[in-house]
Amino acid sequence: MSEIPGGFWAEGSADFSARHSLGEDIRRERFWMIEWTFNEYAEKYNVELDLEHISSNPNLELDIYYLGDMFFEYLFQYHGGYEKIMEFFNKGMDYSVFNATYEEIDTGYINYLKTLAGIQLSVKDEQLKQAITIYPNP
Description:
mainly alpha
């Protein structure tokens, strides 16, 4: 794992791993931050948030530790668990290990965050969320 890029990827995977090794659940007291990200932050910078924007954190205002942790939690829950996450890194961050495209992972992650924070999904996003929830990738 020494090849993991910094920031979102390294810090998120570290927080995810630490939380899981301690048997702790998602930090629900931080859901307000997800809501802030999709509302105030997105409006301030006039951006449509996606995985690329969140992971690159261009304005240095996002909580990349927590948002990264939630990215790996999303992968863990819907795309195959620890083994697939390890394979993802071992294969140079190759999304195909999840039997999904980058776009599917991107959309699924954003919908996962919105769902955690109670943000209304569009009809299209709700349909995609249902498809991912009902048919998780192995």
